[in-house]
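note to self — DONT lose this again. spent like an hour looking for the file last time. sequence + predicted structure for the chain T wanted, 472 res
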Amino acid sequence: MQRVEQISINGQWVTPQGTELFDLFNPATGEVIGQVRLANEEDTRRAIAAAKAAFAGWSATSVAERVAALTRLRDALAASEQALLQAIVMEYGAPKSRAVWMARYPVAVVDEAISALKAFTFRSQTGLALVEMTPLGVAGLITPWNSNAGFICGKLAAALAAGCTAVVKPSEMSALQTQVVINALHQAALPPGVFNIVTGRGDVVGEEITRHPDVAKISFTGSTATGKSILRNAAENFKRVTLELGGKSPTIILDDASLATAVPLAIQAGLMNSGQACIAGTRILVPQSRKAECEAALAKAMAAVNVGDPRDPATTVGPMVSEKQWQRVQSYIRLGLQEGARLLAGGEGRPENCRQGWFVRPTLFGGVRNEMRIAREEIFGPVLTVMSYRDEADAVAIANDTEYGLSALVLGEDRERAQQVAARIHAGRVQVNTLAHEPRAPFGGFKHSGIGREMGAWGLSAFMEPKAIISV
């Protein structure tokens, strides 16, 4: 049983004033593996005060000084890869194949922030005006459980590169992973107060961050419902806000697609991170003329998905993060049957080889209409829907008929045609015949999928405001 008793404020390990203990679970077994002591409002206010005090000094640092600090952080994170990998598998249940990528991702996002910082234009001349990009102040960074270390490091690196100081509220469900990140941050010897990490509940620590007048910027990744609440709180003090929220992403298989290529990509897009991904391609659109062929190929691929022990290299789908999430996914599988969808693969309950833990049978529904709740609501699990379209225009209309707009995937043999279809989809990111990630490109959503962008120069700009100095 592991106990996490401390948070990080002003460069020091600190015992929270909060006294609530929160159980940590191994989702592959359902067993309690530890406890974390949660911070409260007073802890949060102390962290904000430390970040505020550190802002004047940090915002005045040079690009070279920030690059040096971020490089030290990158190196400390690289040395922590194995410890982070073990924490991810144990506490989150990510399959090892995915967990290895997740353990390396923090280094990648810090590297990208360094590259963006080196290339960023902080001053430019526009007519009589000298335009300076100036850091906003204290940034409140609120991160989810589905890629804990990556989100902490990505948001923090961008904030620090821009000259902001930060208070981070990571998910209380990811405390073991957070400890690895804090250790790396301390090893990087950043100035006191530049970063502060306060583990606690969203309605306690998160609420204080989003309402506190000394926090100038909020960057949040999580559910759309929580994002709306944060936006309302932030409006009171005109905080700048970046929200990366939910998704119900479409995957369009065009009528010229080779199913041997398209089906594996469609399944991979839908089941990434065990289906617990905001960008997951959970709505698969297939041509009416090839409906039976597509459904059969998708069902066969879905039935072959390996679910089980995250430590097994052959596993591609691990457990849900919590019993609550498992119950949520089960309820949507039941709902799909009640709505009249056809079960092509999977179904309720655990896979036969998983008698304990929060495992879900990878489930594929056919005969789905876009007005069904399973086609409209974010399930956040390995549950995919197949819908048919008449022609290209109909496919685009169905893809865009959603309140979300985070990501999409278009699959087809004619690359130029596929790109033309991609251009008509209302989403912040559309991939064509690939699931490749481009860290230099902006990432964020349209509509209810969020506000603002992260990554690259766009991610740095989100922590700054332009100031015009006009002289003659």
